[in-house]
Amino acid sequence: MTVPFILDTDTAQDDCVALIAGLLDPDADLRAITMVAGNVGFDKQVRNAHLTLNVCGRLGTVPIHLGCRQPMVVPWVSAENVHGDGSGGLDMDFAGTATEDEHAVDALIRLTAQEPGELSIVAIGPLTNIAMAAVKDPAFVRNVKRLVIMGGSNNGRGNITAAAEFNFYVDPHAARVVFEAGFADIVVVPWAPLTLQDAVFSREQLADIDRLGTSLSRFFLTVCGPTLAFDESVGIPGTTHPDSLSVGVLLHPELALASAQYHVAVETESELTRGYSAMSWGVHGLEPNATVVERADGPAFHTWITGFLATSTEPNRPFHGWDS
Ligand SMILES: [Ca+2]
Q1: What is the pLDDT of residues 209-231, one digit of tens each?
Q2: Of 23, 146, 191, 324, which shows the fewest CB atoms inside 10 Å?
Q3: pTM for this one?
Q4: Do the bridges between strand 147-150 and strand 186-189 make them parallel or antiparallel, or are there none, so unpaired?
């Protein structure tokens, strides 16, 4: 049985890997890509999604809906210092690549309403589109099967500030709306400690990927390369893959080795701790509103990703900025 879902993304680096998994995993039924303001410039993100579809030979096969171009309340903050253009300078001829006319928020509402309780969403960018859909149509909240969110830290370190992980920092109001909306099944894949423990690919593992010698392995290294230098400069020994892990825990729940019920609340007021996620573990008298993944099967996750990268694909168009 395949898992039908929508990928809500700010496509750059590991978002591209998440998209590859969503396109190539035989258990995945990716219905739509919805784009949200996040990592890099909005139009660059759309290009990165097309580049990823291209390397999989799937250009034009999954609709891309353009969503919110800025957070709900605060100005957009980019992560271009970390991600560059988000695809390591890759380019191709984009002539004729299309996106849908329908706005991402409307697509999220419509697609989930067509099959109430059947479609899941993996949200791997700021939560603006998801919050806006919940505000626009309360039925959306009931119609979503499972909402997997990459965001926050489990009372741990942030990555954009000491307190906050990027996705929740960029649109803390949206994150707050989503956790207060009443979704029946939210699964959170946090930055720390989970991603840093179980979803980092070491230089050695990246060298193994290089030896695969496929279009996909090359694409992966080109796209993820720019974050390696940044990650090492901040003491992380490899590339980080929380977005693809989020797709992984939807498609293969056994990748989550430990999870627990938490009440997740997101700070919106404080300048110092904007976007901080307070995850209460059941001793403070608060109703749980999410399942937080605490430990993942790192080796199985790595094997799952490299399985795709070993696959031979025929890109629809040649890449430029790809040295042979
Ligand atoms: Ca992302």
Answers
A1: 999 999 999 999 999 988 898 89
A2: 324
A3: 0.98
A4: parallel
